[in-house]
Structure formats: structure tokens, C-alpha cells
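re: ur question from the group chat, yeah i did fold both. here u go
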Amino acid sequence: MDINAIVYTSATGFTARYAALLAERTRLPAYELAQAGTALSKRAPVLYLGWLCAGGIKGLKKAAARFDVKAVCAVGMSLPDPAYTAKLALPAALKQVPLFYLRGGYAPDRLTGVYRPMMALMTKAVTRTPPKDAGERAMQDAFLHGGDWVSEQALTPVLERLAER
């Protein structure tokens, strides 16, 4: 896959870490979306990474309007689930673009703005009832205490796809 750069949007740092790992492995520059507009030419081919919020990938529409998005990595806090990944909302123009899910993390202490009270409500909802299984217990623990699941191994499918010509 021919791309010129990695472009990302990160709220609490997990997506930025994945972008940095990808930049290191591919030797491509990585730019935050806000800076990419001045660093890259319009319609430059890029890999886009964004964090998940309410079923959408933050910054993706803006990135797609400015760049030629060749692949997308959605970074979330839940375990990878192909069924969930398939349901993620992609703009119509990107329906044929490869989509990867990367488990990032959750850092409630790093949330800002509207996301702090929104996630506080979500934490109450998720932890209201006793967990039914180990998966629910792990999710409740993540909401209460945060977690970091960034893994270089999670990038293997992305790197393999980028290596295709």
C-alpha cells in the first residue's frame, strides 16, 4: 500500500502511541490531524488512526476531506471483535478502505471537556450491576481504574497490509 504519512487524532495518548509505533516501524512521518494540513499536500495518501467515540472514529471525516485515506485504524478500549469493527460508522467514500481495530486504553484522569462527564455517566451505567462473566468484570475494572493495552503485536495486520504493493 502506497502511503506518504500517518495521520492521527488522539485524546488521551493511546492512539498517538500507536501512530508513533507505526512511524517507527514504517519510517513514515506521523502527524496529528491538526498539523497534517500544513505538513502534507492536499489529497496525500495516508493511513489514518482515530479514537472511538459513540461508534464513530474521531477526526475521520475531516481527514477524508483533506487527504486520500488509504486505510483506517480505529482505537478503542474493548477487546477486538470483528462483528463490532464491521459496524463502525465509516463515511460512504471510505466503505472500501481497509479498517483495523486496535485496542488502546482508557485513562479517565486524562479526559477533558465534555468527555469527562460523559464517561463518568458511562462508568456508572457499566458498573451498576454485578458482572456476569470475566469479560464484564474486566470491562468494569477498566472503566473504574483505566487500562493500557497498547501492543506492538496488535499492529501486525496493519503492517502486513502496508507492506503489500
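okk and heres the other one u asked abt
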Amino acid sequence: MKILRLKVRNFKPFRDLTIPDEDTDLPDGLILIEGLNSTGKSSLFEAILWGIWGADSVSLTNDELVSFASTHCQVIVTFQVAGTQYKIDRSYNPADGMAVVLFAKKDAAWKRIADKSRSVATKLDEVLSLELKQALSTLLVRQGEVAVIANATPSVLRNLLVRVYDIEILNRMTGHLEELENDLKLRVNALESDYQRPEHIQQQITDNQARIQHYKEGQESKEKEIKSVEKHLGALPEIDTIKQIHQLDTHLENNKKEIENDTQQLDKDLTQAGLVSANKKTINARIESLKREASRIKTERKDTDETKQKVDQEIGKISGTSTDLKEKIQILETAGTGDVIACPTCSKPLSASERKKLISEYKTTIKEGKTRTKQLETERAQYVATSKSYEARLFEISRSDDATARVAETQNKVDDAQKKARDTVSELSEVLQSSKIKTVEDLLKKYDVSSLSDLQDKVARLETSLDALKADTSEVDESILREEIQISELEGRRTEMEKRGKDIEELEVVSEHAKYVRRKLVNGFVTDFVFQKRLIGIIRGATNSYVRSFTNEQYTSIDLEPTPAKGRSGPGLILKIWDERDKAWKRTSQLSYGDRTAISLGLRLGISRTMSSIRPLKDSPILIPRVRTVLLDEPLGGLDKLRREAVVRTLVNDQSFEQILLITHTDVQGWEGVPVIEVSKTGTSSNAVLKM
């Protein structure tokens, strides 16, 4: 892969940038990227990675990549792989999210070959033969990564190579074996979670069988009792027949009481009405007689009341006259002997003798009035007594009239009650005859009870007892059925547990075998074959030339020595370097910081260099990556001027990569013919210019 052109809009510090700005492509070989700190050099690499692989390739979110004071960003990367040009256009805004399209140039025209993130990622894997995680480990050398390699422990260094070379077959094999072990463990745990020993289940079956035997023994006793009760009930009338007889007998008794009560009421009404029988003609004649008598008495009472009223009026008149005369007498008696006073009645002057005479006449009149009043009061008392006797007789006539009216009604009640009694007797006789019973008394005597209620209760008790016995029998049958079902289930579970026990044993055997294969065979194969017999030799050959050039021939060779696992750390690799000056193998811990940096950079470039030429195994289905480009983000910080010049000189002449982009802010000037991208910043926006 070779990057041809980069177009950036509103991405981090770059508002609108196109490199190269003319209608040309980025050159092959080494390209230096220079600029002061915080001008945006690393942002160019982030733009390339984000444009090709999206947000997973950088450490920031999509929103954090958008320039301040802007709402969207866009990156277009044009690159070439195996002679074919591709262009990827990726943009983002918070409202619509991510949009990405991949084009391929065919017949001088750009044609869309994939869109949307997933399909573009799949197509890129196909074009580059390189997944994102591999690309980040080989294509890009981040700031500080060289120092990490220089200070790496054996296990960290080994894991780095495993990750970089993506020994996928062996990794997947180990992963599959671990997944198999975990799956087997989960399956065993699941099987053991409710596992029961078959012999325990067999004991439960035995207990169930014992309970069934106990139930059956109880059933025999209950069945005998049921037969006895049924026999006893068979000799008794049916409960419905007894209920019917009891009901009719009760109705008959009620009818008799009703007849008795109505007859008593009829006799009472006849006596009160003054009748000897309830004959209709007699009743009507009596009613007419009472009406006539009542009319006569009312007339006589009226006459008596009028006479009494006249007497009252006369008594009142006498009383008024007496009162008036008494007042006049008082006036006349108060005058002196020689006084002349006018007559209280006619106002005529009266002498003393005339007054005396007049007073005497007044007193005589008053006396006569008293006598007459007594006579009138005696007469009045007689009239009052006569009126009361009329009232009493009218009341008696009213009662007799009401009683006479009731006689017919009461007679009808007596007739109805007698008819009901006859009907009840007839119906009772039919029931008794159909049940072959002579009389109710014979029925009670036959079954030694005092009443039909007692007989009904006796039958009901027997039927209740029979129902209870049958219910108990039914419950026992259900209990036996439940026990038999449970036995069937337990037998099935016993068979299942026997099979499960065998399955657990087989799974545990497979689990132990998987652990052995993973621990002893696969991991050992990675250590013994992949690293010791293949990768180490390839890396050594690719790295030695860089180490010699970067250290001015002081260090001429490296070696990677496998180490066994220690404690929690897995197997590792120790980086050893041949010091030509001291004629000795040294470890990185014995070197200066600058030497470690130079050698680690050489190892890192050697790793990236081998990625385009090897596969982990000869028959591996993994394709060789089509990427011969490396992005170096300020790896020269730990080197002095001579070492930096040696690195640049080596990279200028390096034919292992199609393209090398080197970010540096250190002094590497003076290299004529080396293309430089100068990055600068004005205000809040950065710019980059390619200078050939």
C-alpha cells in the first residue's frame, strides 16, 4: 500500500488541507514530516488512520475529532495497492453520524465498490489483507512505542510478536481449546447442579412402592365398609321418597292447623255477627237488618242531640239572665237610703221602696232560674246517656257488620284449607302406595324412629358416610396414581442420572485432554516451532541490517532467546545484541538509553518489514499483507545527531518499504532530495505543505 493523496476538512486543527496541493501524488520512499510541537503532525497520521479504518483506529471519539467551531469533518485518502488505486471518503457529523464510501479507479474513472462502515471494513480487509488490529501493530509506530520495546520484559516482547504477526491459527486453536474447556466446565457444572445419585433415586422408588402397598391395604377395609353401608341403605326407602312423604305429611299437619284456626275464627265471627250459620242468605239478611237498625239509631241520635242542644241553649240563657240580675242587684244595693237612683233596666228614677221591691223581684227571678236550670240539667243528662247508648249500639252494629262480612271470607278460607288437606291426603296416599307403605306410622315403626325427620336424618347420615368412604377411596386411588406417576418419573430420572453420570465422566475426561493439548502441545508448538524455528530467524535477518546502520556498526547482530514461563508470566523472549566493540552478547538492560532506542527502532522496523513477506505457517490460509508502508511518529527523540543522521540515511536508501512517513521535530536537516511535509500553525488552524 502506498498513500497517494490526503484531503482533510475540519479534522482536529486542519480546516481545509490537501496534500499534495497540486495535481500530483505523494512520492515513494522516505517523507519527513517536520514542525514545532502542537502544530498537528500526529494529527496527519490520525487523519490517515481514521479515514481508512474509522474511529477504532484512534484514541479519540468522532465528536472529539471535529474541529472547534465546526459541526462536521471529512477525510479523503487516496492510496494504491498492487497497481490499483483506491479512494476512501469518510465523513462525520453528530446529527447524521458516520458516512463512508470506498471507490476503486477503473478505466480512469472512480467506481463505488462499498459503502457503509461494515461493508467498507470487509472490503478493506480483502484489499489490504490486513485487519485493523494488525495495522495498528505494524503500519503505525506510535510515539513512545520504541521505548516500550526497549524496556519490554521477555513475556511482553513475546506477546508483542504474537500480536503483530497474528499467529491466528494457533491463537484460535488455543482460544478454541480454552473455550472448549470453559464450555466443558459449564456443561459439567450444569449437569452436576441438579445431579442425584441413582441409588438415592432408587431408595425414593422403594419408599413410593411401600406407600402404595399401605394404601392398597387400607382400600380393602374401606371397600368392605362401603358394601355394608350400601346394603343398609338398600333396605331403606330412598331419601327423595322420604323427603316427599315428610313434606306431604308436614303440609297435611299445616292444613289441619289452618282448618282449626280458620274454624275458630269463623265461630268467633258468627257469634259477633249474631249468626248461627254462614248461609249466604242469612248473611245478606243480617247485613240488611243491621243497615236498617243503624239508620234508625242515627236518626234517633240526631233528634236527641238536637233536643240536648236546645236544653243547653236554655241553660245558657238562664245563666246569662242570672248574671245580669246579680250585677243590677249589686248596683241597687250600693245606693244610700235617701238616694235616688235610676233603674238599671229602663233608667227610670227609683225610690228606696221601689229599689227594694225591684231587688226582691230580681232575686225571685234568679231563684226560679236556678230551679229551672237543675231541671234542665237532669233532662240534659238523660239526653247525653241516650246519645251514648246510641253510639255504643252503632259501634256494636259496625262490629257485627264487619264480622258478618268476615264470615263469608273466613268460610272460604276454611273451605280452601279443607280442599288442600284432601288433596294432600290423596297425594300422600299415592306416594305411600307406590312405595308399598301402608301408613306413615307403619313406616316409622318399621325403622324404629319417632318421626320422618329422624328417618330422613338416618338415611342422610348413611349417605354422607357412604360419600365420605367413597371420597376417601377416591383420594387413596389418586394417591396411588400419584405414587405410580412419581415412580415412573423417578425411574426416568434414575435412567437420566445414570446417563448423566456417564456424561459427566466423559466430559471430565475430554476436559483433561483439552487442558493437556492446550498446555503441552499447542503452547509448546508456538514456543518450539513458530518462535524458535521460524520467526526468530526471519526477524533476525530483517533487523540486523537496521541495527548495524543505526549504530554505525557498533552493534552488528541481534538474537531472540526463548525463555520458559515463570510464575504468572508466560513464556517469553530475551533480546540479545552482539557488541562488536566489546566482542560480547549483551541484553538491552546493559545498554545506554540511546543504544536501546536505536536497536529497538531497528527491531520495530524489521518487524514491519517482515509483515509483507511472511506467513506464520506455510499452509496458513492467512494472506500476505499488501502493506509496505510505515508511519513513524517521532521515534528519534532518544538518539543523538549522528544516530539520527544514520537512521535517516538508512531510511532514504531502504527499499523494503514503498513509503515511509517519518514525523520528527529534531535536527535532520541537510538531506537534499528528501521530500518534506512542513506543518505550521496560524491562529487556531494548522496547514501542511509538501516540499520536494
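fwiw on the second one: The first helix runs from residue 41 to 53. The two ends are 21 Å apart (CA to CA). idk if thats what u expected
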